[in-house]
Every structure is written in structure tokens, then in C-alpha cells.
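Need fresh eyes. Consider my entry:
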Amino acid sequence: MTIRLFYDRWLQYNRRLTEIVGAMSNEQLAIRPAPNLWPIWATVGHTAGVRVYWLCSVLGEPGVEETPFVEAMSDDNGWEDDLDHPRSASELVTALDTTWAIVDGCLDRWAPAMLEESVERVYGDQRQVHSRGSILQRLLTHDAYHCGELSQTLGIHELPQIDLWRSD
């Protein structure tokens, strides 16, 4: 038995995000919720990049080479860190889809007992211990958090929002 059953709606959430982002123009992707906050494209890039960081860098899962984040793994700079290089809708959809493939693989390979396994992460001068389960929960809620943030920004600008729970 795998853990897929416990995360059965996550694929739908990723699809809802890619549907909205994939239909956006470069001008729409450049919208910022406030002058001092990231543009939409950077938030989406960050959302995808965090999946690679936690699953590949921290947990050692395979698949980073299939994503646009291979270089970020070596120098800790994600797309959102280079605000002078905006990303297009197609680049963002590719980032979301390729990083989703890593998540999807974990849902197929991991058994429920594996969620209790822990891994050490050194962050700056801090030693942290995370379980696989806590990392998956972090990623799922991180995706949802940013979808909500993006939806609010989109709604303010009278653009279609991300409805994670809409039935197919």
C-alpha cells in the first residue's frame, strides 16, 4: 500500500494551478500583490522550486534532472531570486508539471510507515529533524498557501482565480 490515498486531491490542486497560470499573459504574470512583494511568476516559480528543494535536496528523491531547477540545486538560487529574468506561462507550467512528477513518484513509492522516517537538515547554524510525513504536509500546505495568495491577487485584478476544490 502506498500513501497516494492520503493525498488523492493534490494532483487536482496542481492541475488547477497550472490551468490558471498556463492561460496568463506575461503582463498578468508580472502583477505584484504589493510593490514590495514578488510578482505572480516568482511566487509560482518558488512554489515549484520548493518541491525540488525538500524532496530532492533534503530527502534525496530522484527527478531533479527532469526539472528546470537543476542549477538551483547547486547554488541555492531559485527562479524567484532573479527578478530580472521573468518566466513565461509555459516555463512555469513546465516547472509545476516536472516538479509534480517528483511528488507523484513519492506518492507511488512511499508506504505509510515511511512517513515516520526522519531526516536531518542543517539550515544555517541550526540542526533540524523532519519526518517524511511532515515534509509532505509542508509541501501540500505550501502549495495551498500560495494558491490562496495568488487567488487573492488575481481576484483583485479581476482575473480568474484558482479554485482548488472545483469538481472536474
The chain has a mean pLDDT of 94. The chain is about 50% helix and 5% strand. The first strand starts at residue 118 and ends at 123. Residues 132-156 form the longest helix (25 residues).
